[in-house]
């Protein structure tokens, strides 16, 4: 049989208008909402970045035989779209207005036999315009010469003994880089992409996803130590995850995407690989949705990237089949827009399979609707795309202008505030910059602007500052003097003025060994004072929550919770006291409950002072000087710990080892009490819910 | 108690009304001559082999000056003929025998007058959805399934679903040129075993076949048209009239949609159209549309009477024995009728503007719609105060954070005036009670002290009056966060229905925000009466009852259930009361039953949900109300494409709406109200002034004019013509629109007055 090449139906597309956005349907509804993630990983409302433009179904494209479950499409970067119409076993070439140009539906092998490509899933074109088609059911990738329709190359499983497993060669996706190297993704083999040269010779594997170390793996590892061989066999092996799809960007780097699943963290679902196969995206970027849906839809709605595409501006389009969404990111991981949803509406998908773009227009191929849905950037999306390109510009006027415009459309956008803050920082208007960095949630940048602002402030207000420093020094020396004065023995007694009931915490802080010993002898400890100190802890904690300087304060006023604060101050203290008392009663400790309470509270004094000092200092210090605060904090903590240790030793009349042992047991006791409380709570909750259900059931009968 | 008595009297009256004509008919029956039907009613595709069950034999059963009703006295099929035009509308397409495309249930639906949803009583507890039956298989093809009686002006068909023992009587009567189809709900017999959930009335009346040209009109959002046989493969369109029931709150709702605001639908064909208006039972109805595609041979739109809903309760939630229980919502005893009036249109009226005209006339005649369009201008939605979490010495409390005080509101208004915006209106949200979202059900109209209190409000009111600015302080009677459980709507399991705020990303509930609930409709009268007394003390002459226009819902509680059937009437009574006390009203949305009372409607839908089935988006809602009521478009600040939103306002003759606050909008970030971003007045003022300056001269000339024509001149180029001859051409495409007299640039509009370009 002679080679023949049939051009199918060449539908003459009626090109009434060349423009893209004159659509087949005049519907302008957007069936999804816009959002952005703040630095706490919470979604906040923003305008929609991309709006549905047009849905092109088979008749809009001018196809006589409608598409049937198309699996992939490819834009050649010039003027043609190629759809792999898998159900019909053909390739459809469209022009940039998505009107049919050519249909390739008959392919022959070099032996002259007809080649059926029904069921193929991957399509790519090389620089000459020849097709590569990945066909997992036939275990092969074929190259078809475009001019003749002849299969000129058949790539099957490499012969080399490279593969230690004998999985079939289920090639699902294929892509070609700018050197005409072929990358093939094989679902069943997780060694990375198979790389072939233009002649079809296997070269090597590329960019296998690393095994992610996670707590789950460590747990598995430990668990396995206790298992028999048979049991171990039953376990699923943790293997490098297979990536779902890939794309080559303008620089020849390979982007890969994978799904988020139980054993891999959210990080690393998108990678940009250089020639040596290592990821060159900033480490730790999270792509896709960051919030948890609380298991409303178990399993089905996890972020599952099935396609990636890099547009002309270098922005990344990711297709998430989990939620039916396209995410558009910058290479720094900033989200420009997320759009699409699962629905039978314009702009919604039923089975999205692939994403492509021309300029800033994004196209999604839907195998369920047998249609291509296009999206165009909204006012907001256009602005953001422009603005992110200007993040590193030196033209401050232009940058300020564009970021202000972004802010004007979305006062929730942290990017806008960040952009404006950066401009003001460059311009030397540090106070303004700080204000915007605060709105942007940019702690480090705030801290840097603060440093510059502080410099200016010191230069301008040095007289006042000197005055304040003098006053401070005087105040401290007065306090020191006052303590010294009272440290002298009062005439006619064996004790100084510090050793009175209400000044005693000061004495124990300075002279712990002697001080705590007096609890037993003189009963000088006060319960009222103890409670006061505990309450002071609560208030100081609250104070530091609200008034720690922004450079160091990761807490937002809106997140303040009375109960948690109470629990982690007074609650913790009470728990320790009860646990210690329980333990020491068993261990022949001599301390009473009141003494333990007083010891614990009095020991807090240095720590409380360190909280106060740090909170005040945090407002004038910057990130680089954090060490000062760490040191103060450490001194406070160690001092308090030391006081606690000496105090407990003294009141229980233990030796060093005994005290140490009792504290360890106390901590253990605290854990047990917590566990019991939790258990009790859960049981009561279960019982209540059970009784409620039974009651409902009975009342319905 | 009084209410029950009233109901009893009404039902008695209804029964008498129903029985009387029947009796008269029986008296006349002997004398009436049966006239043969004209030849054109002959069924298409009839052959010798056609089974008896599919043969339809029409005879004339009633006629008046304008129309004739033919019916098959054995099987209940009927046809409505308009005398003037000769157009015939069939209850079942007369060529259904030729339909080789429809398969499955569609094949039976097209031949049925009714399809029903029902549940066996014993299955209710474990059911997750209702079973379906249709009148062709369930009645016509069964012995004794159909009984047809002649009435003077029509017929009464009793559909007896033999196998399941349900009997549904429906009357079809001529009313001038129209035909009313009335389900005699009071006389439905559900038998011993089953309970009805819904009745789809005349699912294929006026259906267009696989080769007919035409469109279906669905009032989704602003209004949508479905081209006949558009080939789209998708689920049938079905949405509740007046929106989703707030009782059926779902945790996950991944896509957003518009709601149906009007109880109207229509089938449009070249030179003829058939429209339906749900005149009784619109509160518990949904509209269903079917398009022609590879699996369905016809195109039809119809209404469904929703009788009961299935509520699901998860039992033993935290255990492995988790199980779902179902229960049907309350009783339907007090419902007597469900009625749809079908009106054929011909010639120049056979389009959606004609449909709007007929429907508007119905609202004027029956629902008290009157011309009360308020002077148009720039509409502001002022945001007053919100509650935020705060802490003092570590103790949490919620405090009022003012967004716009009364004084600041005046500052915004005068700033706009200074820049030439001389016609303004203000809706003030969150000015009393607890700010933008109620804590408790409002009882008193007391201005918040952090906004300036009563004194400052009086000053603002005086300023507004002096400058002819309409001021609508807004009150939300329906939603609240705390209060007695008695006040809240409940499911059939007597569980309070909580509405939570959801994450935009994964749709999970935001746990840190208190959920809100809805007031039982039974309480509405007491609450609103009490509030009205207090409100008259403010001396303000207008009020915004936003949510009354926006929502519609039922209460499935076993103790004090409230059927959604009665909702429109309940709210209408409240609005009537408020209007009678001399207040000018504004509402949000707004559903038809509330819209007729309003001088101004906020947030009128200008878009349609964009279902795959839809082909065109039309401002049907605005065509109905324009000239009678002033409407605002969607708020400008938060739209995705300002230019498109502006053009939508221009196309529909709506006012521009800006959400507005004085303080920085960054205050709202991270709160319940973060969707109100970019509302600070300094952010949109320039844009507002520019658009106002351009648009106001046009708006002033058309605001009290009805729309007489609306056409698509070219792809994405729309023309709206008003009764005074002014016409507006809006170009949504990205190419110039060029006609003989004018050129309209992309994303721009042009005005023609009496034919000449201006």
Task: Put the structure in a nutshell.
With 701 residues, chain A is α+β, with helices and mostly antiparallel strands. Chain A folds into three domains: 34-388, Neuraminidase, CATH 2.120.10.30; 390-460, Alpha Horseshoe (Serine Threonine Protein Phosphatase 5, Tetratricopeptide repeat); 500-684, no CATH class. Helix content of chain A is 39%, strand content 20%.
Largest sheet of chain B: 10 strands, antiparallel
Q: Which fold does the CATH topology of one domain in chain B refer to?
A: TIM Barrel
CATH architecture level-2 label of the largest domain in chain A: 6 Propeller
- Categorize the overall geometry of chain A: elongated
> Spatial order of the strands in the main sheet of chain A?
3-29-28-27
Name of the level-1 CATH class of one domain in chain B: Alpha Beta
Residue windows where pLDDT falls under 50 for at least 5 positions of chain B: 18-33
The share of residues in extended strands of chain B comes to: 25-35%
What structural category characterises the helix and strand content of chain A? alpha+beta
Broad structural category of chain B: alpha+beta
Mean pLDDT of chain B: 89
Average the pLDDT over all residues of chain A and give the rounded result. 85
CATH class of the largest domain in chain A: Mainly Beta
What is the CATH architecture annotation of one domain in chain B? Alpha-Beta Barrel
